[in-house]
TrEMBL record:
Name assigned to this protein: DUF2071 domain-containing protein
InterPro entries for this protein: ADC_dom_sf (IPR023375), DUF2071 (IPR018644)
Entry-linked PANTHER family: DUF2071 DOMAIN-CONTAINING PROTEIN, DUF2071 FAMILY PROTEIN
Database matches in Pfam families: DUF2071
Xref: Gene3D superfamilies: Acetoacetate decarboxylase-like (2.40.400.10)
Amino acid sequence: MNPVELAQRLAARERPTGRPVMKQRWSRLLFLHWRVDPELLRPLLPPGLHLDLHEGEAWLGVVPFLMERVRPVMLPAVPGLSWFLELNVRIYCHDDSGQPGVWFLSLDCNQPVAVELARRLFLLPYQHARMRCGGDLKATRYHCLRSGETEEAIYEYGPDGEAQEAEPGSLEFFLLERYVLFSSGRNGQLFSGKVHHPPYRWAQAKCDRWSTLPMKWDGLPEPHGKPESALWSERVDVDIFPLRRLMR
């Protein structure tokens, strides 16, 4: 990662101008990643976005976590609506200006209202799913079954070691420090949306059980072997900013 790229990625941590539209808490996050042939992932990106590489390598991620206290700004959280589960499959990209971000291949969610709102307001590929989560902070059991599928993705995980912030330029920094999402409208117009939160404090994850089924559900070949990176974070409080049309 050259100095210009690193400076741009560090600048992405700064709070965006304007007012957020939503507040959320993301908790018990598990970040699983596999190295993937870049040529497999490039066709998944729309024109105007480019695959983001770390030391020449592409990464494909599966991230289950809990969504908590989800609410529009100025409104209170609502029991039954503001707490739910989400699991996303993601790749990393940047736009023509070099702005780094995330391209979601899918986002499974067990809150039907959230699925429909996210599809309409943020143009993201949310999927209805039956999901449940048990255990505690140190030993989470997480289940996901996408609508229309027959086999359940199961994860059992917790922290393994002390939490820390990612060292700028490290692989952990590349995978975790993402403050922009990209999405696409019906006419192919690209949008970007910014989030703001403190840098993740992460630990290595002890992951006794994992699944690559969400990749299969998205039509991708399932990678062989264990995740090459498994990271855990307790929580972050997040401000969500509105989508903006990406100028090309």
